[in-house]
Amino acid sequence: MGFQICMGAMLQCSFGTAPSALSVLPANRVAGATPYATIMDNVPSTNIMPFGQCSTSSNPAVAAATSAAGGTLTPVPCVPVTTSPWVVGAPTVLIGNMPALNDSSKLMCSWGGVIQIINPGQAQIQTP
User: Fold this and answer.
1) Banded pLDDT at 121 (limits 50, 70, 90)
2) What are the C-alpha distances in Å from 5 to residues 13, 110, 116?
3) What is the spatial distance between Cα 72 and Cα 16, in angstroms, rounded to a whole number?
4) Are 48 and 20 in contact (CB under 8 A)?
5) Where are the alpha helices (DSSP H) in the chain?
6) pLDDT one-digit tens code per residue, 56-96
7) Which residues are 36's β-sheet partners?
8) What gap in Å lies between CA 51 and CA 105, rounded to an integer?
9) Which residue has better confidence, 121 or 111?
10) In this structure, how many other beta carbons lie within 10 angstroms of the beta carbon of residue 113?
11) What pLDDT does 2 receive?
12) How far is CA 65 from CA 55, 57, 74, 77, 78, in A?
């Protein structure tokens, strides 16, 4: 059991310094005005917003800033690079033929961060 995720859910990246809100386009509407998320709501700067500052040296911008600072870790704005869908989602709950996003889903950033859901958003509909 888990909660279906909707517009306004709060996310956190393991290398980011601040949470971020999930943005879901209005195409995914079910039984109301709040758009629900699917595993394909993974697009940086459309669905996934920045997470404050990034602190992993696997991010080339952090590595460059750290090198310029003489080796002292220097965080830079945490702009996620996500190229794959969320995993696993709720395979028995489909929205527009895609599995719905649930509160145990994870999204991987290309720089090694794990993005997770820390608050499901406004609507908390239990999914099987």
Assistant:
1) confident
2) 17, 23, 11
3) 17
4) yes
5) 60-68
6) 999 999 999 999 999 999 999 999 999 999 998 888 888 88
7) 6
8) 18
9) 111
10) 24
11) 64
12) 11, 9, 6, 11, 13
Q: What does the pLDDT read at residue 62? A: 96
Residue 122: the pLDDT is: 61
Largest CA distance in the chain: 55
Please provide the distance, in angstroms rounded to a whole number, between the alpha carbons at the two ends of the chain. 5
Amino acid at 10: M
Q: What is the DSSP letter of 66?
A: H
Residue 37 DSSP code: P
Tokens for 123, please give them.
């609507």
Cα dist from 50 to 25, 54, 61, 97, 123, whole Å: 17, 9, 14, 28, 23
